[in-house]
Amino acid sequence: MIDVGFPLQANLSTLEFEYGKDVFGPKTEKQHLDDIRRSLSDPHVDGPDIVYAVAMDIGKEKDRQDLIERNLLYGAMIFEKGRVGKESVRSQGHVHAISPSCNDSTCEVYEIWQGAAYIYMQETTEDDPGRCYAVYGLPGDVIIVPPHWAHCTINADPSQAMLFGAWCVRDYGFDYTGVRAHQGVAYYPQVQKDGIDFVANPMYHAQPIQVVKTRAYLELGLQGQVPIYTQYEQDPNRFAFITHPDIAKDVWKNYHF
């Protein structure tokens, strides 16, 4: 059982989530190694056939209609243990496309549940990607990706599966164009004996990466070490900055890690 604010279990042998009483959710969608090859440092490597599983739109039955009306979506993910070649298991990377509901790119609010994660982010997918960050998170930590930033999710501890949940806009979309044109994001997470080493992707002209720990997001009204689903229940308006990013435009403009 994972402490996420409602009854939820992860079956790591089937990469499926199991929902408790009065909780809704779909069968997980599986992402295969072949789906992410174009964004790896070496597209021809071996690794787990299924690299991660996604269950989009989960929550308590009592909240289902409210979440629909708010255009707010909660998702759950399982990232497999192990490696893909020299790299840790990860997503391929994308930018949040413009959502029709707000005519803008939107942010994403992650909460790490099990294992360890890096959420890698870069300002653009141009040859000069701007600032590049890898934010490290452990269970209970929250990490926010701002609108328009390219990002990918990385299992920071290949010895075990990594699980997390995330809030996003319901009419989300992914733009892979710039990432795929550069064969991935600006840094590849290669596994070393003492952890993850971020190796520059030569297809970019990137500035040095900054590896940081997560922080509190007091400017967005979030609480530390309280499940983000519980925070929604406490104040259903708390995550309005996801579906209406203009509410926090000054935060995004001066975003710091």
UniProtKB/TrEMBL annotation:
The keyword Calcium does not apply. Keywords: Gluconeogenesis, Glycolysis, Isomerase. It holds the Pfam family GPI. Pathway: Carbohydrate degradation; glycolysis; D-glyceraldehyde 3-phosphate and glycerone phosphate from D-glucose: step 2/4. It catalyses: alpha-D-glucose 6-phosphate = beta-D-fructose 6-phosphate. It comes from the Bacteria. Its EC number is 5.3.1.9. The keyword Metal-binding does not apply. It is an enzyme of class 5 (isomerase). Residues 49-188 form the Glucose-6-phosphate isomerase prokaryote domain. One of its GO terms (molecular function) is isomerase activity. Belongs to the archaeal-type GPI family. This is glucose-6-phosphate isomerase.
